[in-house]
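Schema walk-through. Below, the input block comes first and the output block second. Nothing else is stored per chain. Lengths vary across the set, and this one has 98 residues.
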Amino acid sequence: MSDTRHIVFHDPGPAWVAGKPFPEQTGVREHVEHYRRFHAEGKLAMGGPFLDGAGGGMMVTEPGLDAGELFAFAQSDPAVASGLLVVRIRPWLAGMKK
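--- output ---
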């Protein structure tokens, strides 16, 4: 059985302040709370910020999550609405795993 998931990429948007650490960006707390709800519902396997200083982060959904539901959820993220982050979603096949 295939393990198809979606990867949610968050890139810095127009409201992102360059050089300011992720936790200090305005709206990050609301963004994290938004995705914690998704995680609590069993729809998110893991997620977090990139640590290379470029900003943004990514989320990996649980297998079988409906792409339309995910898109609507990602667009309703307060950090996306405010312009702090922009979002893109790509389908992914977990071809290798433990």
